[in-house]
Structures are given as structure tokens and as C-alpha cells.
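Board notes (copied after class):
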Amino acid sequence: MKKFVLIGLAIMLVLFGCLQSPPKDCGTDKECFQEAMKTCTPAKGVSADPGITSEGLIKGFEGDKCVVEMKVTESTSLPGLKGKEMSCKVPKEYLGASTGSMSSNHLFDYCSGSLVDMMKSFGAQ
């Protein structure tokens, strides 16, 4: 009996995983990504600023926090940034805020990873 229950659960997990829609592809449209961030709607995007290119992925809610990941894919202005990444669990109350209004204190409270570690090593607080 336990075997059938476990097989049933495994099938349900596989089906649930297959039925989830892929994240919205915002490409380089920053407004698209910011709109998705306001509601924590799964989305991915690329930020191609002069000298630095990064990829962002909004994974969705984990409890009452929005999980967002970012990775620097190219960096000609600061070569040490390439490959650095961070993962953030942003509380709902910050989702509608512009990125500029979330201070570095909040960033360090809710984010971790090699990119955050590097920012701290440069003296960011």
C-alpha cells in the first residue's frame, strides 16, 4: 500500500512540475522585469548596461518572500564581477519599491552570494 502511495505522489510531483509555466521572458525590457517584480511573477531578463551584463530570474514566492536571483555574465569594466551571483528573498513590502529605494542595508539583509560578498569587500554597507 505504501508503495502505491509513494508512486502516486511521485507522479503528482512530476505532473505538477510539467504543468508549471516557464517564467516570462522579458529579454532586455527593464520595465517588463520591474512589473513582474511588483507581483513576484516568475520572469527572466537581461540587463545590458555599458560594461556590465547581468541576468535576472524571478522565481516566485517562497512563503511570503519573493525569490530573485541575479548573475553577472559579462563585465568589461570590472572583470572580477563576471560570474558573481546573488540570491535574494525579498519581503512583500519591498516588491513595489523601485530598486533605488531598497538600501544596501536591505540588500545585505535579504540577499546572499558571491556578488554580495564582493560588494561588502569594497566597503558597501
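Comment from the instructor: The two ends are 56 Å apart (CA to CA). The chain has a mean pLDDT of 81.
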